[in-house]
Amino acid sequence: MAYEKLCTFEFGIAVEVFALERPELDVPWYECRVFSLEECGLSAMGGISFSASYGPEAIDWADTIIVPGWSGIDVPVPDRLCTLLSAARGKGKRLVSICSGVFVLAASGVLAGLRATTHWRYADQLQAAYPLVQVQQDALYVEDGGVFTSAGSAAGLDLSLHLVKQDYGSSIANAVARRLVLPTHRDGGQAQFVPAPVSRNPGNLAPILDWLLEHLDQPHSVQSMASRAGQSQRTFIRRFRQATGLSPHAWLTAARLRHARELLETTGLPAAAVAERSGFATPETLRHHFRRAMGVPPSKYRQAFRAG
Question: Alpha-carbon distance 86 to 103, whole Å?
């Protein structure tokens, strides 16, 4: 699908994977059509002007409809488009969204009661706007009931390769991935890419928060933190949650994980040193918390994000 203010990168993903001819694979490849509801010319991000070759009749022709992003998460989805997509789903057609395109599927009602994902920046807005959708904030892509949704931008490549694998098998998907210079499957989920949470309004807790960030390698208990802040444990816990949205323990763990991520990205320190400097004491403790939060072990994260 094409639309006004088209997201060119997401659209390019769909074209690259499904519309590009691949004679080297020696299999009948996808037949693709670009359609739009608009009859006049369209504009796309990057100053591009274009027109789609087909109108909405292409929806009846297709087995799979891809919505590559949307012009804005607050931009209303036309009722006509919602009706067409809902009818397509009723006929058993496969519906796919990349990044913010999930808002189009959600508006059409096809995601009600289903699991779905989107870019981590939009997950809360999606859940608030469509409470019947089960938003999976950490997933790179989600498949539920014949409806496929991906996280932000490049995760559309992960989802597209997944669809190729479903349709043609692993060997063909691997061949396409090699041509794209990509792994067929990425470990972990969006948690690897989400910035660490910051304090909402630290107020008079700012000094203790700053001190903790400078002394992450030391052991800390709620009692010791409350004493340093000059508060009772009960008051400290309440005010800490009000200021940060987290318990002291959860905030400290998140801060230590952020520091560990920085060390893994920017240094060649061994796991034991990263664990010690981050306050996790042992590599085993670091691996436990890292895998739980990021979906991958520290070694995999370092391979993916270590600066040259």
Answer: 13
